[in-house]
Amino acid sequence: MLRQILAITFKDLKILFNDRGGIIILFAMPAMFILVMSTALQGVFEIGSSDRPIEILVANSDTGDLAQETIAELETLDGLVVIQTDAAAPLNRQKIEELITTGKYEVGVVFPTNFTDLILESATTPDVVQPTVTFIADPTTSTQFLAPIRGTVQGFIERTAAYSQAPAQIENRIKASFESLAQDAPPEQAEIVKEIGTAFINNFEIEQNSESGASSIVQFERVAPADYKIEKFPTSVEQNVPGYTVFGIFFIVQVLSGSILQEKQEGTFRRLLVAPLPRTALLLGKLLPYYLVNLIQVAAMFAVGRIFFGMGLGHAPLGLLLVSLGVAAAATGMGLLVTALGKTPAQISGVSTMLAITLSAIGGMMVPTFAMPEFMQTLAKISPHYWALAGYQDIIVRGLGAGDVLPEIGVLLGFSVVFFGFALWKFEFE
User: Fold this and answer.
1) Are 139 and 224 in contact (CB under 8 A)?
2) How deeply is 39 buried, as exposed, middle or buried, from its count of CB atoms within 10 A (0-12, 13-18, 19+)?
3) Mean pLDDT, the chain, as a whole number?
4) Fold category of 54-223 in CATH
5) Looking at the DSSP assignment, which residues form a beta bridge with residue 362?
6) pTM assigned to the model
7) CA 258 centroid distance within chain
8) Is the pLDDT of residue 209 over 50?
């Protein structure tokens, strides 16, 4: 019995190893996934460290000194780089919005003109208008990334404000106490009590500390660049559903490739070749059903987000449709390419899964591209997933229109043409 078991085992191993492509993919797929994900996630854990500091844009319009004091303290932090100029010119709000819109940076801070004056005035005038510090951020920036940055900056601002107000607040309290004592003292001693109070205030050294209670001294607001037409910042659903949708679309590659290979093995595809139609038309006819399935898939996933979670879909349905048409074309084109390259079910399954997962990771489906190392941010642009996600985010998250996503759609259609053209060249019809 043992000999029979070993004989069957040897036979199956021989069959398995005869498919060299399948064996290579079997080991290459997890190795590639580990390589890509470990490299991408390395950026997540390193961001904010001295090796990979967070860059924050700062526009200082304050006519006083308190904003600059806050900025000077921020510059001492390890893991944070404060950028106040661009091309040797001081930053302003408009320039910060422009840099964020172009994707060069994720967040900026704007100090108002009367920042110092209002803080100092509020020490003696409780009803004075509070200064408003503005955080400008790309709507696609995750809260997990933005919250620590905002918390750090906000903490330094509040501490600086508290330090500046503490002397005035304590001085007013001491002065009020001595005036109250003077009122209760005999008339002949009232003036002496006031003089003692004045001398005490003049010689009193106030120890500043961060417990002065400055939580309400400054107001903070988070806004998006003016070019992004959004009424409110997106929820996690509006940020995640587009990514999950793109991730799911490209799994059509394995289904499409497996179907064509099965028809080849069963002889169905050979019978189709005798039909009076060009071979290009034959392949397009094979792709069209899966193309339509992709579009239905997009509609279904967005419908789930809309119906069950109240997901916003932006204000440009035409833009969503165009991006969907482009990404579906890229996915089916990739499916045909895998069909042309794969010779066995094991090869097609392995290549399809490896491409779906690896390109998703590179393209920002699993790790935001801004959190990746710089070279991977550049590498991400070779993935159709990156452009599809960017197109959906422009419409749903950033509130842009159909005309704004034409570059992404053009790239996706370019991917589909390249995939289809190469597949047509390498496809073995016989």
Assistant:
1) yes
2) middle
3) 79
4) abc type-2 transporter like fold (3.40.1710)
5) none
6) 0.76
7) 34
8) no
Whole-angstrom distance, CA of residue 83 vs CA of residue 110: 12
**In 229-373, alpha helices (H):** 236-249, 252-266, 268-273, 279-309, 317-341, 345-362
Q: CB–CB of 128/216 below 8 Å?
A: no
CA–CA separation, 30 and 357 (whole Å): 10
Confidence grade of residue 152 (pLDDT, cut at 50, 70, 90): confident
Which pLDDT tens digit goes with each residue over 11-55?
Answer: 555 655 665 655 555 566 566 556 655 565 565 555 656 667 888
pLDDT at 325 over 50: yes
* Sheet strands (E) in 16-166: 54-60, 80-83, 85-86, 89-90, 107-111, 132-137
User: Which three-class secondary structure state does DSSP give residue 405?
Assistant: helix
If one counts every other C-beta atom within 10 angstroms of the C-beta of residue 19, the result is 16
d(CA 331, CA 45): 32
CA dist 61 and 156 (Å) reads 17
Retrieve residue 317's tokens: 């349905």
Q: Judge whether 60 and 142 are in contact, CB under 8 Å.
A: no
Residues 216 and 158: beta-carbon distance below 8 Å: no
Q: What is the pLDDT of residue 206?
A: 42
Beta-strand pair 107-111/54-60 = parallel
Give the pLDDT mean for 94-106: 90
**Residue 84: what pLDDT?**
93
Give first-to-last CA distance, the chain, whole Å.
Answer: 43
What confidence tens digit (pLDDT) does each residue in 293-313 have?
999 999 999 999 999 888 889
Hey, where are the domains in the chain? 54-223, 236-426
